[in-house]
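WARN no homologs supplied; continuing
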Amino acid sequence: MELRFIFLLSLWITTARSLYKIGIGIADVTGPAAGVTFLGYGKVEQTGEGIHLRQFSRAFLIEDSTSRTAFVSIDSAMMGDHIKKEVLKKLNEKLPGLYDTNNLMLSSTHTHSTPGGYMLHMLFDLSTLGYVQQTLNCLVKGITLSILRAHDKLDYGRIFVNKGELNGISISRSPQSYLLNPEAERAQYEHNVDKTMVQLKFESESGTPLGVINWYAVHATSMNNTNRLVSSDNVGYASVLFEQKMNPESFIGKGRFVAAFASSNLGDVTPNIKGPRCQKSGKPCDIPGPSCDANELCVASGPGDDMKESTRIIARRLFARAYELMVGKPITEIIGPIKSIHQFIDMTTEEVDYKTPGGEMVKGKGCKPAMGHTFSSGTIDGPGLFSFEAGSKSSNNPLWDIVTNFVPKPSPEQIKCHAEKSILISTGEFNYPLAWSPKIVSTQLAAIGQLIIACVPGEFTTMSGRRVRKAIREVLCKNSWCTVVIAGLCNTYSDYVTTPEEYKLQRYEGASTLFGPYTLPIYLKQYSKLAQALLNGDKKMDPGPEPIDLKSEVWSLLPTPMYDTPITRHNFGDCIEQPPYTAKLGQTVKAKFVSGNPRNNPMLEMTFLTVERLTDDLKWDVVATDANWETEFLWKTVSWFWASSVAEIKWTIPENTTPGLYRIRHFGYFKYFGGGRLGRYFGTSETFKVT
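OK structure emitted
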């Protein structure tokens, strides 16, 4: 009780009351635009073919007189400890001793439409044909740059927290599992998904808005697994909309105001609010289960007529509510010290006492990682390659016969430990050619005054996140007005975390709960322990076991582009299909160019295209790049043998476009035959008139 009083008192006794040093930065992290499989849906053939929206890293640094913390939201599918380690290494070269494992948090938005190959564990690199160094390089470079830019802008300012309900964004994709949670617990909440947006607002000392972090629990899966263009999806576009509103004269990713829509306990939450239906018959369906005919898929869809329109609608709703929170009342000012703490734990050695809904105390332990059969069936957001019914052991597909014959059968101890899970792949008992799943995970807490951020290593379901928040509140802010937020997919990615009750049904989320039925109780114990350490004022804990470095063991089957050859009788950059002479507002204009392979240079902090307008003084002003919603950069190989390719650029003319003369330009690099040397090229279309 005394410790809690001291902790709460310290929230009030702060030098200069509530002024902090605040730094906010943004940088491009877009990986190879083509030829690399996207990470998220696990669909091998979902290889990139261009860009719709670029990926960004958004960094928020907060300092008081004695300490600092950094929260970074990244437009990526997931996060790994090796990425954080590489970022810290580069930061310490520039800013020695300032940032470390304890005070840096890296949280992915969980978009499913960005290039993969940057995770080290076998399970996450299977669909991408192994490791892709270029993707990792882009992430590390961009994350580091966003933090350095934020650090350069550190200045005094104030922080505020606000929250509000947001409907029309999300539904539960596993309502049956949610119903297995105790009735008394469910009665405490109005919805089976969290619909509260929590916003952290940053202002300069003079009151100028600098940025916001918005935490809202929803999957970034409005773009489905047929999409082939790099996209930050609904939450990424919400960020773009907010930043365009606040930085009207700046290019995307270049403005001062930065808006992050960060992930939370989104494990069982989908933005596809029309729910699942059979693709052909239109009848309601579910996964797993034989609810559709053999030749049709069970897929959920969003509010729009197609995935792109659904992305736009969800993003606009997210942005609109976040903007209301930023300018609205009531709003609470953040006061108090900055604290952060971190510890690695080996989930396979952890034990816990758990009180069942019936009141019985049981002893549980963490299992070696394993994936259940329904993991391979996918979800209503993106069906898997094979169909398994809950609890089944066969998909009647010969490929899985090969997999199950290649991977050793789970041991009796593993089968017993995972209880209701029918194990498809015992990833924790198989390490060929390298470890398939993590065993050691990152756990972290940060206190920014009365806001507590729980940085969690995976996708926690709605009720799992609620229990974590409750456990932390009971230690740090009982009978007070502290706010606890879940920062999802943070530092480590270790798949899903369900409640023990949800686990029993073994839907996708339960089958993907790596460490067995007591995964959540172990985390509840761990985050309570971290909270107690913050309460005690511990500067550091035992760091825990270091994750195994797998960098030397990575593998790849993805060939590197060897050379480029222009189409016969053309040079790189030639415009071979011109836009029309005139175009109207709302019309989509196209131009095609002879191109090189986008993997030659990912064009970080640059662009593969520009749309330009001729000004009155006869200068060309850029009005859009490949980061804009209204543009698309599409790349296609026309000859595999000669490595010849074409880039198609589309521009859907916004309704507020100024009439006049316009042109489209394309930029890229080609690879010379033989030596691997790169050459730069550009191309320009003929002018066209927008009326």
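DSSP finds 14 helices and 35 strands in the chain.
OK
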